[in-house]
Amino acid sequence: MSAIRVVVADDHPVVRDGLTGVFRAEDGIEVVGEAAGGHETAAVVARIDPDVIVLDLRMPGGGVEAIRTLRALDPARPRILVFTTYDTDRDIRGAMEAGADGYLLKDVRSADLVRAVHDVVGGRLVLVPAARAALTGRAAENSLTAREVGVLRLVADGRTNRAIAARLGIGEATVKTHRLHVYEKLAVTDRASAVRTAWERGLV
Which residue range or ranges hold the Response regulatory domain (predicted)? Predict the structure, then answer.
């Protein structure tokens, strides 16, 4: 199995060096690029095509803005793991609604960070407790999770369940489950209505 290709995006050189050291100590992870800002992150990703970005939320050019830019280019790749010191509801919701696949705080152990990288590559949502609490509140407001938004965007592109599953690296049954959740949260019953409502809410 090939190594997971990671880009480290943080405006503090000491943090980038530390993260690079952590990942390079792992046999299954390869650091293939670094970036110090939002605009640079998008450029590096376009050139390198990594599997995962470990992304600081607040840096020149904006972390959330970088997530939106990357998701506009591709709703599924690369996986985006936010790695930050900020845990307010506003920061968490902003990042996840923009399309992040995980939200981790910088006080975690190295082993937990490494595990989180593997988890997001495997299609699993990685959230610290504060993020889970924020997103539970968001779900109560009938908003969509980052994964559901990703599925919805591919649905809007006319992709079949099989094509979406292949794109996201998940099973067709999982895609169907996400679609049902999307329909329920948007209060619709079919693809056309879901896409129309998504456009009206600015989700796609």
Answer: 5-121
Residue type, 102: G
Can you give the pLDDT at residue 20? 93
Q: Are residues 51 and 85 in the same domain?
A: yes
In sequence order, what are the beta bridge partners of 79?
A: 52
Distance CA 22, CA 3 (A): 14
Q: What is the pTM of this model?
A: 0.67
Q: What number is the average pLDDT over the span 23-42?
A: 91
Question: Which class for 118: exposed (0-12), middle (13-18), buried (19 or more C-beta within 10 A)?
Answer: middle
- Looking at 96, 115, 139, the residue that finishes a domain is 139
Do residues 117 and 140 make contact, with C-beta atoms less than 8 angstroms apart? no
User: Is the confidence at residue 199, as pLDDT, over 70?
Assistant: yes
